[in-house]
Amino acid sequence: MNIAIGADHGGHKLKKALVAYFLAKTKHNVFNAGTFSEHRCDYPEFAKEVAKLILTRRAKMGILICKTGLGMSMAANRQKGIRAALCNNIKMAKASRQHNNANVLVLGANYVTEDLAKRMCDAFIKTKFLSGRHARRVRKMEG
Ligand code: RB5
Question: Which residues are catalytic?
């Protein structure tokens, strides 16, 4: 699967670890949308870039990381067609796929460990949307 990943300076370290994990341990293709250093930068730029990769179908899913996950989720959810889910545990990551058909997993680097983040990414990517009654609700969000 093609996965887009982006972070601001607050999420840079975790993004680096996740990109290395995807390359070494999975068969997914990763589009790394930056940032590429610890220098202060503005999270909406990366949220928009990851959203663009998804909306133009170059990536199927996205991962966004900032310190809290709050700014990234707000910025990503302003883009029509993006359903970004700020999750703190594996159950939420799975539910965001099953019930909300989330296409972006948002992580707060200050609130998850590297190991948990890897497991949340795995769960998010492999969990399917349940459709049925949930599809009606997701459609209503788009209106
Ligand atoms: C950066 O200091 C911080 O504001 C950002 O990473 C994020 O947590 C915003 O919501």
Answer: 99
Q: State the pTM of this model.
A: 0.98
Q: Which domains are delineated in the chain?
A: 2-142 (3.40.1400.10)
What is the 134 CA–ligand 1 centroid distance (Å)?
31
Instruction: State how far the Cα of 89 lies from the Cα of 109, in Å rounded to an integer.
Output: 12
For residue range 17-58, list pLDDT tens digits in order: 999 999 999 999 999 999 999 999 999 999 999 999 999 999
How long, in residues, is the chain? 143
Atom of ligand 1 at shortest range from CA of 108? 8
**What is the reported pLDDT for 19?**
98
State in Å: Cα 10 to ligand 1 middle.
6
